[in-house]
């Protein structure tokens, strides 16, 4: 039996998809990447209406291409609106609570998990995503995640250490800790700093990356861990808006000054750090002046990259009921401007590394047989090079010589 696992959305979904691939592999399934599967598993996202639309499109596509296949939809959209996925052709729809028990619903007896036997599950990644936390206790006005993920809960420290050791023994060079809000991690009085300390002290992980943090998570104590060069010099520090009045309507728990202080502290502590962020444009009531505040703040911070999201009304959220919804035309123009700033900012950040040497964890060939490889430095700059020898899943340094596509080109020696 062949199973294809497809993931939309966040790194938390990617982490859960890795575990699903492992479960299927240990139960005797062959993990494939596309058409011809007996089972298609779609791990859905519902953070925007576009994510919903992508899920429906994929279900319809597989129903047409593999009419005899079982299509299993799970994840956040499946949790929020299962009937919408059933309507377009999903044969089995499971919410987040049942996501990790798909095999039970298929009446397959999985082989018990054995540490050290983890495989890539056919997903072909050189880094592995590990969930350390799930759910959220906040109530941001625009966010549907607490509805579909539930209240915050954390993975026990011993389980996380064991999982990291298993991934390392399976050959993964980089581990990414992910969750809905990992800055809130706490298990038996061990917080995120304590967890990371134990991982660095008790495992042989070669590179450790924290997926996403908020300004209130940043402290001198946490940043002191970056003395260990195995920690990635990349902070994805969520902003959402550069206007205090919009942040208050969003029900975020920080101000612009709080955010600016966090950025300053990071840059004083971590050399050559990349700070990236998320921005929502067109939030209900966002005036031209508030958008300009947000745009100017992002320009001032000088982000390494900006992930731009156009506000999308989510059923059941406070923002969906707010007056003064911004028109699609205005949202599109603001998104265009912010995306252009994101491109300019990313290019500026990359250029400061021209002529320098970067250590890169190389992934696969961009095009099979081309000899051109792509990988990420520890500050998550995308780097390309050409090599006659296989570089996949290896740390090798390059001399950066020029800007190339959405990153840099390095000469491999």
Short structural description:
The protein is an alpha/beta fold.
Structural overview:
The chain is α/β, with parallel strands linked by helices and 413 residues long. It has four domains: 104 residues, Rossmann fold (3-Layer(aba) Sandwich), CATH 3.40.50.360; 86 residues, Transcription Regulator spoIIAA (2-Layer Sandwich), CATH 3.30.750.210; 112 residues, Transcription Regulator spoIIAA, CATH 3.30.750; 56 residues. Helices cover 34% and strands 24% of the residues. It has 13 helices and 20 strands. The chain has a five-stranded parallel sheet with strand order 2-1-3-4-5, sandwiched between helices. It has a five-stranded mixed beta barrel with strand order 16-17-18-20-19. The protein has a three-stranded parallel sheet with strand order 6-9-12. Helix 12 runs parallel beside helix 13. The termini are far apart. About 4% of the residues have low confidence.
Counting DSSP E segments of at least 2 residues, the number of strands comes to: 20
**What's the average pLDDT?**
93
Instruction: Please state the structural category.
Output: alpha/beta
The CATH architecture of the largest domain would be 2-Layer Sandwich
Could you say how many structural domains there are in total? 4
Please tell me what the overall shape is.
Answer: globular
Determine Rg (CA atoms, Å). 22 Å
Strand content: 15-25%
Task: Enumerate how many helices there are, as a single number.
Answer: 13
Q: What gap, in angstroms, lies between the N and C termini?
A: 44 Å
Q: Low-confidence segments, ≥5 residues, pLDDT <50? A: 109-124
CATH C-level of the largest domain: Alpha Beta
Largest sheet: 5 strands, parallel
CATH topology of the largest domain: Transcription Regulator spoIIAA
Helix proportion range:
25-40%
